[in-house]
């Protein structure tokens, strides 16, 4: 169960004080105490004597400013009743947690960050500027307030971060928003940039391509990517977005199943969300068996980032989810149909020996696994990193499938790259790895044009940053002969530069 926080509506951050944030459970019907127990268990491990997992408290190579007093989380109440029952202290890992801490919704995140961060955090790559620990934490909480996605990170992914230099860590960059890093949104973006809701004949089912549909049975994920293309629906409401929630529901599911069965041209279904990792085993099994039973459906894919952010689940023989997944793969094969797991790795640092063991198990069980990456500025936008990611996936029997140009969604302008970046990456990597392990580098066209090879543009003006595409196979809703435009981030349009140190944004 991951660590999750969303900002409480109407709460502001002032100076060194951090406002209260609301913990939400990993499952919409889950238990907050259960979530807090997992978080506290992680904190307890950090507080242990395992020095290999604890970053040093200072950087010898950086100028250190005088330490400031630790930032305190503002309590929910200023006066507490006497003779109160501090019942949470019965939980061993919360034995020393005060009432004020326990009643502050932000205490778990704050405690974790305060434990793992050094006294001084490098701000730029030259280490000429720093933030104090408390300034960095304040930056995070202000980023959460401005972001479209709430924060949720699993213990596994938290452990893969270099907490000595978090501003430049590729995993932090994906999952932990920093307000100082954000830049104004492009004027042409929309929250639902791919127009998924407009292409939904029933709620939670996107039918854009003639033979393929996207089924969204849930809107919860094990981690929330700050750049999520489905930020209009995924996760809890934030300060900036009221979500079009897609909670699991029998009536909604039955409407989706009925539509899929009524469309003889439909042959391929993507089950996503949210994330299939957050379906209960019986729900996963039901969805798979319903699809296998439909004569028109020949293939289905389960989309989950779980293999990248919580691979240990695949190795847990007591977990019913992985048994349901493997069982569905076997049933599909016996029915002459194909099932695959589509996962989402973006950086080689996300791969560990746990990933290797999980990948090997899935390979031995006959589960096809493919990966879809998103091209992100400062994460995987150089040849060395992207090539290492592709090879790392291939070595673990995870087939690189797509590399997406980052979608034009709110509050992620600092993560987008120009189209030229993805074109250059493909040109330089193609030929260096076997063709069947080479992903397609694609743009999911704003406005609902679907996926097109990045290099298939009709025109691309590097000076203005505007590229134009057509999508002849995507029709309906006045899409015939439509021209779709993708816009490069304004701050990376060609201009004179004097070089110098790269800022920590």
Automatic annotation (TrEMBL):
Cofactor or coenzyme needed: pyridoxal 5'-phosphate
Record organism: Chaetomidium leptoderma
The keyword S-adenosyl-L-methionine belongs to this UniProt entry's keyword annotation: yes
Molecular function, one GO term: 4 iron, 4 sulfur cluster binding
Domain of life: Eukaryota
Alphabetic keyword roster: 4Fe-4S, Iron, Iron-sulfur, Metal-binding, Pyridoxal phosphate, S-adenosyl-L-methionine
Protein name: L-lysine 2,3-aminomutase
InterPro entries for this protein: Aldolase_TIM, Lys_aminomutase/Glu_NH3_mut, rSAM, rSAM_sf
The keyword Zinc is annotated on this UniProt entry: no
